[in-house]
Task: structure prediction
Amino acid sequence: MRDLVVFAILNRYLFTASVLMLRLFVFMRYLLRCLCLWCVMFVPASFAEHISIAADRWCPFNCEAGSELPGFMVEVAERVFSKHGYEVEYIEMNWSRAIQEARKGEVNAIMGGFKSDAPDFVYPKEELAVLENRFFVRKESDWVYKGIDSLKTVQLGAILGYDYGNELRAYIQESGAEEVTILNGDYHPLSHGIKLLKRHRIDVLIETGPVFWYNAKKLGLADEFKVVGLTKKAAPAYIAFSPALEDSSRYAQILSEGIRGLRASGELASILAKYGLEDWK
Result:
């Protein structure tokens, strides 16, 4: 009889425990559903998806990542995509690697590219600058650019991975270190090139006007140099999207529409003014 009573009591406790465990399971499932619903409703969209854009430092268009003045193109991208719930991640790396990473789909886009840099990329209809490459020398220099042959008498400085047009690209590829100094580095090869030009380590440096003068001024060397020729006519510069990612066409369309909207509202002019730039249209 005692064994039966003990068994009945034990069976009752087991039943009660089972009921409690079932209720706990139902409650936890309900709690998990509520948590998921809360995340969808209240967590900012920026946590849902981000757009990564890579480039080397090319100030004033893209400057130091995370700084108060990250660059004109960076600010435009952030302003446009944030309105659609995306967070822009600007990553600094050397230009050749940026193109390679974007081509593989490891990052979404490159910043400040010309179509000749990466012809296979997805380009928006709206550019973010129209620029031409120029030849810079020290003020006391009497050298003037008069075509490719004139480069044979000077030491030229050019940045690894940059495209300067067909003629100049061929000259750089065919020349040795005695004629061309290739500037490399993850973040700011241009600053290094400006210093080399100042120290007579190179005779001529190629760069777009706004980028060269912005960086020379930052180094306190703007009064040391002058322009002595152009490499080619002005060309549009873009934020260009990876050919390997299916969202690239949609991102390009969002950016184009966003640039037009910023121009119409006056926001574009306001961002440009922060960097001493003017609208190119």
